[in-house]
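FAQ: What does the model actually see?

It sees only this:
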Amino acid sequence: MVSIEFDHAFVDFTVYNADARSLKKRLIRVATGGQIGSNDQGRVIVRALEDLSLQLKDGDRVGLIGHNGAGKSTLLRLISGVYEPSSGRAEITGDVASLIDISLGIDPEGTGRENIFLRGGLLGLSRREILNQIDSIIEFSELGDFVDMPLRTYSTGMQLRLAFAVSTIVRPEILLMDEWLSVGDEGFQERAEARLVELVRSTNILVIASHSRDLLSSVCNRLIWLEHGRVKMDGAPNEVAQLYFGS
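And it is asked to produce this:
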């Protein structure tokens, strides 16, 4: 059974070799969310998530809302395994894939074909799995003969089409997103939208951070409102959105 469970989980970041007072002033200027303190050794601690206890089950489509710095990205990284709790428990059951940075691992000196293998490998796909999908990736990205040219010769739109085509061939049990992806020109956007909808429908659990009320209302069956690293509200989208966004 696919599930995500946190039990009194905290995520703290220790900042070494820094003067506490001057660092605190700088952090306050750039971050509105994390709470700043110190540990027993006097080192500066930024608390990104505090006392997180929640359960996500098969079928959940969860939207994360909150101001910049509230802890949304930290929570996504905690689910993906990039971070581990400083204390408390995190138990993730199921394969996880992230569409937070679809260009991660892309090499501008490599050809499009080489980058398909690089990006696919980072997504956990075997060489055989990539070979089975490579023709459909090339076709979907609309690169044609450019697939054997160095990526540095591509336009930004071509690079994004390739990254999107590779990143969306996976069918994970748990899908993480930071905003809804929109890439390419109008014609490609329609195809990309359809593919993204198909991917979301096929996943067991979706967790997406977004500032779009319309998107969250149409996609999610649950909203979690984070504030200063804590869960302020967790409930039905219409109820949480009403309080967060207003009328």
